[in-house]
Structure formats: structure tokens, C-alpha cells
Design goal:
Its cofactor is Mg(2+). It is an enzyme of class 2 (transferase). One of its GO terms (biological process) is D-ribose catabolic process. It catalyses: D-ribose + ATP = D-ribose 5-phosphate + ADP + H(+). With 321 residues, the chain is α/β, with parallel strands linked by helices. It has a single domain, classed as UDP-N-acetylmuramoyl-L-alanine:D-glutamate ligase, CATH 3.40.1190.20. It contains 10 helices and 13 strands. It has a 9-stranded mixed sheet, sandwiched between helices. A 4-stranded mixed sheet has the order 3-2-6-7. Strand 6 and strand 7 form a beta hairpin. The longest helix is centred in the C-terminal third of the chain and has 19 residues.
Amino acid sequence: MARASAANIVVVGSLNVDFISLVPHLPGAGDAVVAAQLEKRFGGKGGNQALSAVRQGAQVMLVGNLGDDPDGRDYRNHLRREAVNCSSLNTVRGTTGSAYVTVDPKGRNQTVIIPGANGQLTGPSIKMQRPRIAVAGALLIQLEIPLEPALDAIRIANEAKVPVVLNASPITPDFPWGEVKIDVLIVNQHEARQLFETTISSSSANHEVWKERMAERKIRHLIITRGPTATLSIGKSGVDEVPVQSVTPVDTVGAGDVFAGAFTAHYAEGTDIVECIRWANTAAALSTLKAGAQEGVPYRGDVQSVLGTVRSRAAAAASPR
């Protein structure tokens, strides 16, 4: 079980039921590929991130929509079993969101999302959560929900001086960068290229350029995940490269969400950002060892054990012989 933590997080986001097909290779345009099997699992960026934060010890309230169908009922029961606070999770008429995910033997994936109930999340429903957001240790949000409620949640947090962690995925062209404050922006390298229109490998050499572009967008700290390559942490003082764990992935679906949830759980505790990234990198790597977005989400103790082993090896290698 996860250790109890003082971290109090509000996650605003999507909940999907994932239909995962395992294929010998990802289809190209016009291709028909025969799947070895089809699996049904819980997912959606909001649900994934909430579960990841809970398993790292945070107290998590999830704000979002489920449909009034059997999938919505089952998902709510699943979250309750995982100790996610569902009191702000609405049930609306219609179907729960869904995602159709195709995964190849190397763990690479393609995804088609049907918003369902997620598309009915509104600004007024978010504003009703103002008292809960205003007392949170952090707000974690992503962009797999309509833009209006996402912005309303961020504005409430800004007004209450609650730190905002934004996983800007998928990239939304209409997002009004510079109109709201983002404490920590988490994106992968492809999203970072879209958003900042620059070469990611040149980050260290062009720190002043990064600072200027971040200031224009009111981003205090930028984190760029790069799969098996070290994660970049960019702030006012410079650029850090935080190593990732080397694993052979079974399924990379949801790894970015596990990173965001784990990072925010430790960030809300007041942990140093680079240390938060170490925890998040390890949690994300461990999550890829099982199929499904949530089945492999590790507990705090699992991550702590791996980090302890890594640090012990590093200390032994550094000690004089």
C-alpha cells in the first residue's frame, strides 16, 4: 500500500475505458492488421494521473465526468477501491469516454479517443469545485477535456495561489498561453517542439532563449520527457538532465500520465523538482512493464526500492577502491 502523505491534490481530467488491441505491427494508412487479442481496461489521462498520484501516497480528489452507463459505474467503483476521492466526479447522461489503442510488440502505440462524457465537462461544473481547488496543495490538469473547464480550473488555482501542474497533452492550438500562470509544464519532446518551435537537443546551449519563451507563456518551470533519453528540467537557474531507468517496455500506454501523477504527488509534498523527476522517471519506467494504462502503475514503495538500489550502486561506484 502507498504511504500516507500530506500532499493534497486535485486532478481535473478525462476518464476513458480503453479497448486495447495487440498487433504484430502498427498499421499504416489503408492497412488492415489482425490483432492477437482485444483487452478492455480503465484509462483516460485524468484517471491515470489520479491513480498514479494516489499510489505515490497523495490524497487525490478527481474532478471529471463519467457516463450513466455500466462502464461509468464500474470505473467509479474501481477508483473508490483505489482510494481516489470521487465526490466531485459527476455522472452525466450518455456513454463514458473511450479510447481505442493499438499496441505493437515493442510497446509503441496508436490511439483514437472518443470523448463521450468527458466532452460534457463545463466551466460552471468546475467553478462549483472552487472551494476544493482553493485549498489543494497542487492542481494537476491535462488537455483531454474541453478547454473552457480546463482554463477555469487553472484560473481558480491562480487566484488561490495554488501551484498548477499542466500536462499540456494533447497540444491544444487555442490554449491562451500567457493569460494564465503555469508553475510546472510537463510535455514530451514532440509536444515541446510544437509548442516552442525549437530543437530540443539545444536546450542547454540556449537556456536564455528558453527562459524568454517560458516567460512569454508564464511558465515557471518546464519539464520535457524524452522516452528512454534523460528528462530535461528547465528553470530560471539552468537546465538539468535527469536520467531515466533502462527497461524493456511491454506497453508504453499511460507512461506519461504515470510520470505526471507521480511528479505532482512529490511536488505537492515540497520535494525538490529534480528529485520529483527522479521519482516520476522511475514510476513511469516501471509502469511500462505491464500491459494497460493503469495495471502497471507502481506504488511508492516499489519506486523507492528501485531508487534505493540505483543510489547504492552509484555510491559504491564512486567510493575509492
